[in-house]
From TrEMBL:
Keyword check for Glycoprotein: no
Membrane-spanning ranges: 20-40
Provenance organism: Citrus sinensis
Alphabetical keyword list: Membrane, Transmembrane, Transmembrane helix
Record SUPFAM superfamilies: Acetyl-CoA synthetase-like
One Pfam family from the record: AMP-binding
Name listed for the protein in its UniProt record: AMP-dependent synthetase/ligase domain-containing protein
Gene3D superfamilies reported for this sequence: 3.30.300.30, N-terminal domain of ligase-like
Record keyword NADP present: no
Length: 499
């Protein structure tokens, strides 16, 4: 069906079979194209086109909460590629297939005439051979196609060993998907470190997931902060025994200190290792470490082989021992980081316009980070989430931290700033999602937020508008899309100005 080196896509939940298919594609000398199962046909088509995939493994349906959601039909609408279709339940697919496509059963039976070897010799490739094509989350336009090499798998594995202390005998669980960076990361980290990978089918928001963690004897559990917030808010883990967990890991968003304390209490107050990186780095550039004292919601060190500086507004690095806030600049020599993109200029995206430091051009990552007096690092958000309020620069994350704690009705907040339709200084707008069963008027929240921000951040900051919404727009990897909220409020202010 395929020629060596072909790109073959996987678009399905992270099941046992999906993991086997992922490993088999690499073992046989092909390249995996990772696609999240939540994407619409148009998003699938973009990824298949950019990667030049020659085929795709998928499922007939996705099962969630006892309901069936179509997946094969979305793949049909994306591209005319050959599809190998797995059943969500049972042994037979539950829908008719195109003539060119194969069921999983027929795919396996097509080699029945071959005698089964006791040992299959894998295809050996050089270290810079591509094994996986992943995509950025697309928060700033068309997703970047990022090739992972064999070195990428070694890098993320080493990080799991060094920072999370992953080892033989561990049971490692992290709800994710092969379409996002954490999918391949936990797969390689588990197997190359000799740990067991725990896979759960269903929503991690439910108590049933917590019971799975208990019954599977999970020893290392990965989360995202919004998941922890939901567990705490619904109290769905009450009565479960998570004391086999010896460490947690967290990534994807800025953590809430109170939520982290609550989570840690479920497992003898063991550490939560924060991790912040990127698909193009195949790893984190800052992380916690069990060899150092840890602080909730903070990072204690740069990761192995990663070097960084924090830049001031003129692009000049602060001294390494000085508390400061600024955009991070990464050292260009970084084990496992990308050196190419399939659909963009790698040099333009990551290096052009970055300052020189000790004879090397720094690599762009886009995070605003804060180094504290104690030397810990706190992520303040993205460079494009920086605000200028009355001539004072601050970050969305910093304001959200204060607002999240301002009233008991608050589930989460999103802070953005926009210039008025007629021009002028930026105004601060807070979007709010309320906890279930709570109601609150925007004007009242506006007063509460203003008072909290002025007392805890800066007395000159003023909230201009509060909007209560049922939920926030997010990428499929759960990243908050502040630019969507910003566009919404810009449009609203523009309409108001014309009335």
């Amino acid at each position: 069906m395929f020629s060596k080196g072909d790109a073959i896509a996987i678009d399905m939940p992270m099941t046992v079979r999906a993991v086997i298919i992922y490993l088999a594609i690499i073992l046989a000398g092909y390249v995996v194209v990772s696609i999240a199962d939540s994407f619409a046909a148009r998003e699938i088509a973009t990824r298949l086109r950019v990667s030049k995939a020659k085929g795709i493994f998928t499922q007939d349906f996705i099962l969630r909460g006892g309901r069936k959601f179509p997946l094969y039909s979305k793949v049909l609408g994306a591209a005319p590629l050959k599809a190998i279709v797995l059943p969500a339940i049972g042994n037979d697919v539950g829908i008719p297939l195109r003539e060119q496509d194969l069921s999983w059963k027929d795919f396996l039976s097509s080699v029945d005439y071959h005698p089964r070897p006791n040992y299959y010799s894998p295809v050996y490739n050089p270290v810079d051979a591509v094994v996986n094509i992943l995509f950025s989350s697309g928060t700033t336009g068309e997703p970047k196609a990022i090739p992972w090499t064999q070195l990428s798998s070694i890098r993320c594995t080493a990080e799991g060993w060094a920072h999370i202390d992953l080892k033989v005998g561990d049971v490692y669980c992290w709800p994710t998907n092969l379409g996002w960076v954490m999918g391949p990361v936990i797969l390689f980290s588990s197997f190359l470190n000799g740990a067991t990978l725990a896979l759960y089918q269903g929503s991690p928001l439910e108590r049933s997931f917590g019971k799975f963690v208990q019954d599977a004897g999970v020893t290392v559990l990965g989360t995202v902060p919004s998941l922890v917030k939901a567990w705490r808010n619904t109290n769905c883990l009450e009565g479960l025994d998570w004391t086999k967990i010896r460490s947690f890991a967290s990534t994807g968003e800025t953590s809430n200190v109170d939520d982290d304390l609550w989570l840690s209490s479920k497992a003898w107050y063991n550490a939560i290792i924060e991790s912040c990186g990127g698909t193009e780095l195949s790893s984190a550039y800052i992380q916690g470490s069990l060899l150092q004292p840890q602080a909730f919601g903070a990072f204690s060190t740069a990761t192995m082989t990663a070097g960084l500086v924090i830049l001031d507004e003129c692009g000049v690095p602060y001294p390494d021992d000085q508390p400061c806030v600024g955009e991070v600049g990464l050292f260009p020599l970084y084990l496992g980081a990308s050196d190419r993109l399939l659909n963009a200029d790698h040099e333009e995206v990551y290096f052009r316009g970055m300052p020189m430091y000790k004879g090397m051009c720094l690599r762009r990552h886009g995070d605003i980070i804060k180094r504290t007096v104690g030397g810990y690092i706190i992520v303040q958000g993205r460079a494009d989430d920086t605000m200028n309020l009355g001539g004072i620069k601050t970050s969305s994350v910093e304001i959200e931290r204060v607002c999240d704690q301002a009233d008991e009705s608050i589930l989460e907040t999103a802070a953005i700033s926009v210039s008025p339709a007629g021009g002028g200084p930026e105004v601060l707008v807070i979007f709010v999602v309320l906890k279930k069963g709570f109601t609150s008027q925007p004007d009242k929240l506006k007063m509460i937020f203003s008072k909290a921000i002025q007392s805890k951040l800066n007395p000159l900051f003023k909230v201009s508008l509060v909007k209560v919404v049922p939920e926030f727009p997010r990428t499929a990897s759960n990243k908050l899309l502040r630019r969507v909220l910003r566009d919404q409020i810009k449009h609203e202010l523009s309409v108001r100005s014309r009335i």
